[in-house]
Design a protein that fits this description.
mainly alpha; 0% strand
């Protein structure tokens, strides 16, 4: 616990947790929510399109969303670290935190697999050489949706239990 107490007593941790400034906890939390909205929202949009939602929307141009997804991920990594430091002794002993991390890293892995195994194998028409989506596209889409739903649910549970 000494290590966790040390983390909580860092200047940044104290500022995030105790500052009356709107630039502290409220802004960091808002940025964290926005970052997750970008990552999970755009990831879900790609997954839903691969599952057949909005079938007239071309698939290949959705690959251009990946730089935004990575931007959202890094915003979340930075703000999440600040929020974690502010309450390290509570969060780092909570199994829900680790469940959330597993879902997040699995979700990122699924997004990258989708990019490598689906987007890299389809043409401008959004289909593979045989005229269909790659075989693993639907499984990756479902896995992505499950990961982001799990990450968001675990994150909200962290705030309330």
């Amino acid at each position: 616990m000494n290590f966790l107490d040390t983390l909580e007593n860092l200047g940044l941790s104290t500022w995030v947790r105790e500052s009356p400034s709107k630039l502290a906890y409220p802004t960091i939390l808002w940025l964290h929510v926005m970052g997750m909205g970008v990552v999970a929202g755009l990831g879900a949009m790609i997954s839903l399109r691969l599952l057949g939602v909005s079938s007239k929307t071309p698939i290949q141009p959705l690959e251009r969303l990946y730089p935004l997804i990575w931007w959202g991920f890094w915003v979340n990594a930075i703000t999440g670290t600040a929020l974690l430091l502010a309450s390290a002794s509570k969060r780092l002993v909570d199994p829900v935190f680790y469940i959330k991390m597993v879902f997040i890293f699995a979700g990122i892995a699924v997004l990258q697999l989708t990019r490598n195994k689906v987007f890299r194998k389809i043409g401008p028409d959004g289909l593979g050489p045989d005229g269909a989506l790659p075989d693993n596209a639907r499984a990756l889409a479902w896995a992505g949706l499950i990961c982001w739903l799990g990450a968001i649910t675990a994150g909200r549970l962290l705030a309330y239990i």
